[in-house]
């Protein structure tokens, strides 16, 4: 009797929110009161191995319920699929989800619907890596290049990156992979920290955290800017005095400015030798970024955490608009689309320094950068992963930082599994934390 193949039996979703706004953690010029949140998804199966696929996308509070509903709308495409076939070809699900002719109207390939697709696909990759008993970075670094190319959607980017280009880059990237893997396991991957630089922090707290970052081995920190120029000048002066001249300081405006303001403001801060200006204007403004880049050099221009898809990244690269490309593990269509973006960056020779922080973004994106180092770019020169020391304790395999470097995760999967007790406590609005919080406030929302 032939055994029945294992299937996806359920797509469970959770609205998980943390009250980070109360300590001004994550505050910046455009987001003064973020409550870091995760629209969380778990793929359940009837396989005997007991593995589940965990994924999520990040939001900052209100609207997380909308994001959860978008993930739920994908359920008919996922439930009932063969686990083996899905894990053998996550790209098949990517094509089905992006190609849904009615849901596609809500994008296409952008915004809430695209982020939902990314969460679902990341959960598939988590499941696939667990079934292979490997961390995702290792799975990606050792699979056949031809198979990786089959996971990339080249529609709309083939004028800049063809499948042949991608295959060549991946084959070339395999040279020396064993040595790099040994180095990665021994030394980790360089990080930088934004923890000192939130806009709502006092100068004393900025100074203390900046000095601590240097003591912890970080060679780059980042400060939020853009609310008040005089305030930014004072804060940059304070930070530079705290860390000295040998530490890079990046600055991040979080889309605050018009193009002319971005140029004027960045040049006014140039005396403090900022390494890059991040998100100086709208993430959709390719020509605006190009104009800023020309006008503020040698300060570099970085963006990407709000770039909607591989097509916009393609145009930023084609226009010579950025010096640093910042992928986000949960903004675009999951691992599949981030593979396309990493390949585009490699084709154009632009370093990738991922956005992280949030809820679990550090946990996810480390896998993508480590794959890039091992099997694509082959280098960590001028490449760093953002690190923010928030909320890692809620994950079963939290990031490990030593001497300012991410240590390669060894647990199988995508490091996406949240602790059950954390979901139970912070599930909104009826988790134990939120119920107690409302009671403490006299029953108000």
UniProtKB/TrEMBL annotation:
InterPro entries: Enolase-like_C_sf, Enolase-like_N, Enolase_C-like, L-fuconate_dehydratase, Mandel_Rmase/mucon_lact_enz_CS, Mandelate_racemase_C, Mandelate_racemase_N_dom, RHMD-like. It catalyses: L-fuconate = 2-dehydro-3-deoxy-L-fuconate + H2O. The keyword Ribonucleoprotein does not apply. Its cofactor is Mg(2+). Transmembrane segments: none annotated. Its EC number is 4.2.1.68. It comes from the Bacteria. This is L-fuconate dehydratase. It comes from Streptomyces violaceus.
């Amino acid at each position: 009797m032939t055994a029945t193949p294992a299937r996806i039996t359920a797509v469970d979703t959770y609205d998980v929110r943390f009250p980070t706004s109360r300590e001004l953690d994550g505050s910046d010029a455009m987001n003064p009161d973020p409550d870091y949140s995760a629209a969380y998804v778990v793929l359940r199966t009837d396989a005997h191995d007991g593995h589940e696929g965990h994924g999520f996308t990040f939001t900052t509070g209100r609207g997380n319920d909308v994001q959860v509903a978008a993930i739920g709308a994908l359920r008919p495409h996922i439930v009932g699929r063969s686990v083996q076939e899905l894990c053998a070809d996550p790209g098949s699900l990517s094509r089905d989800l992006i190609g849904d002719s009615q849901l596609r109207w809500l994008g296409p390939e952008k915004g809430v619907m695209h982020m939902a697709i990314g969460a679902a696909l990341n959960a598939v990759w988590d499941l696939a890596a667990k079934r292979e008993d490997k961390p995702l970075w290792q799975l990606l670094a050792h699979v056949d290049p031809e198979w990786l190319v089959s996971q990339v959607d080249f529609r709309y980017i083939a004028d800049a990156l063809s499948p042949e280009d991608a295959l060549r880059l991946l084959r070339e990237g395999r040279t020396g992979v064993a040595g790099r893997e040994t180095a990665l396991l021994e030394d980790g991957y360089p990080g930088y920290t934004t923890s000192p630089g939130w806009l709502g922090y006092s100068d004393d707290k900025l100074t203390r955290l900046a000095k601590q970052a240097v003591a912890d081995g970080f060679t780059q920190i980042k400060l939020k800017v853009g609310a008040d120029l005089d305030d930014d000048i004072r804060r940059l002066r304070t930070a530079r005095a705290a860390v000295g001249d040998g530490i890079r300081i990046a600055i991040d405006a979080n889309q605050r400015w018009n193009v002319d303001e971005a140029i004027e403001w960045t040049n006014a801060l140039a005396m403090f030798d900022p390494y890059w200006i991040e998100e100086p204007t709208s993430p959709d403004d390719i020509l605006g970024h190009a104009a800023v880049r020309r006008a503020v050099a040698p300060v570099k221009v970085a963006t990407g955490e709000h770039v909607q898809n591989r097509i916009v990244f393609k145009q930023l690269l084609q226009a010579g608009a950025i010096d640093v490309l910042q992928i986000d593990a949960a903004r675009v269509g999951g691992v599949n689309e981030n593979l396309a973006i990493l390949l585009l960056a490699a084709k154009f020779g632009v370093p990738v320094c991922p956005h992280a922080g949030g809820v679990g973004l550090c946990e996810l994106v480390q896998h993508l950068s480590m794959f890039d180092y091992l099997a694509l770019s082959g280098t960590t020169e001028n490449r760093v992963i953002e690190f923010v020391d928030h909320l890692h304790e809620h994950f079963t395999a939290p990031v490990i930082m030593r001497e300012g470097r991410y240590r390669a995760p060894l647990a199988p999967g995508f490091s996406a599994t949240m602790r059950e007790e954390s979901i139970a406590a912070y599930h909104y609005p009826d988790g134990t934390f939120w119920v107690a919080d409302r009671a403490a406030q006299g029953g108000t929302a």
